[in-house]
């Protein structure tokens, strides 16, 4: 393999690393924003849990008050029962008492259920809050990791860009221009190995004479199908 072929392969590797760094530098801020939204959702869940408990406590307290009022009303109805004058009034008074007793029973059942729910929420709240806090800490740690990765990518970019530029200066201009156009057109790897009898890029079968010429010269070739540069790997040249 000729030195210029090795140099352009090295250039491609640095370009691919730089491409990946640039892609990650776009992805990382997006990932951080998504994680921050998750943290905000968890904080809202924490507030919602406490609000649900408070709401249920208020409901239970109101039912207790309603029950006291209903029991006082029933007591008055029973006093009034002794003051009726006719059978019709007596019948209506008993009916009133019966309805009030039913209402009290309904309130008692609802109050009991509300108190049970309060106790359940109180019991579950600490564990759920711990789980939320742990999830938030994990997400915050992930944000820190991503921020550190972003900073490190900046350092790596400068290192790879310097090494890339050193390779560019050693490559003939005509090859460099073709390489750049291929990168713009296809992206990814534009210098690919001959793999057996086919192009390592598009998998098209190559003419036997072209393969032989590349093996003999150790130079770059071009795939007539996809336009990528072709080369024969060093281990194949010496096999």
CATH class designation of the largest domain: Mainly Alpha
Shape call = rod-shaped
Tally of strands: 4
Q: Which spans have pLDDT < 50 for at least 5 consecutive residues?
A: none
Question: Helix/strand/pairing class, anyone?
Answer: mainly alpha
Distance between the termini: 13 Å
Query: In what order do the strands lie side by side in the largest sheet?
Result: 2-1-4-3
CATH second-level architecture of the largest domain: Orthogonal Bundle
Annotation field: number of helices: 5
Order of helices and strands: HHHEEHEEH
Q: Helicity level, as a percent range?
A: over 70%
User: What's the CATH topology label of the largest domain?
Assistant: Helix Hairpins
Mean pLDDT: 94
Range of strand content: 5-15%
What characterizes the major β-sheet? 4 strands, mixed
Indicate the radius of gyration in whole angstroms.
40 Å
- The total number of structural domains is 2
Give an overview in words:
- The chain has 239 residues and is mainly alpha-helical.
- The chain folds into two domains: 15-168, Helix Hairpins, CATH 1.10.287; 173-237, no CATH class.
- Helix content is 79%, strand content 5%.
- The protein has a four-stranded mixed sheet with strand order 2-1-4-3.
- The radius of gyration is 40 Å and the shape is rod-shaped.
- The two termini are 13 Å apart.
- The model has no long low-confidence stretch (mean pLDDT 94).
């Amino acid at each position: 393999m000729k030195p210029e072929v090795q140099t352009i392969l090295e250039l491609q590797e640095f370009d691919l690393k730089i491409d990946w760094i640039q892609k990650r530098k776009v992805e990382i801020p997006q990932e951080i924003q998504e994680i921050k939204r998750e943290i905000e959702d968890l904080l809202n869940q924490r507030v919602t849990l406490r609000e649900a408990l408070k709401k249920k406590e208020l409901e239970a307290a109101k039912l207790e008050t309603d029950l006291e009022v209903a029991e006082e009303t029933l007591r008055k109805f029973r006093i009034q029962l002794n003051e009726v004058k006719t059978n019709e009034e007596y019948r209506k008074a008993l009916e009133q008492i019966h309805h009030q007793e039913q209402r009290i029973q309904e309130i008692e059942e609802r109050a009991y259920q509300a108190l049970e729910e309060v106790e359940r929420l109180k019991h579950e709240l600490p564990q759920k809050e711990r789980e939320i806090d742990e999830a938030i800490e994990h997400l915050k740690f992930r944000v820190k990791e991503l921020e550190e990765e972003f900073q490190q990518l900046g350092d790596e970019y400068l290192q790879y860009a310097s090494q890339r530029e050193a390779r560019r200066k050693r490559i003939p201009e005509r090859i460099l221009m073709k390489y750049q156009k291929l990168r713009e057109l296809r992206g990814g790897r534009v210098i690919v190995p001959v793999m057996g009898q086919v192009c390592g890029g598009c998998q098209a079968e190559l003419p036997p004479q072209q393969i032989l010429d590349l093996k003999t010269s150790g130079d770059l070739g071009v795939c007539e199908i996809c336009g990528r540069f072709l080369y024969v790997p060093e281990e194949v040249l010496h096999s």
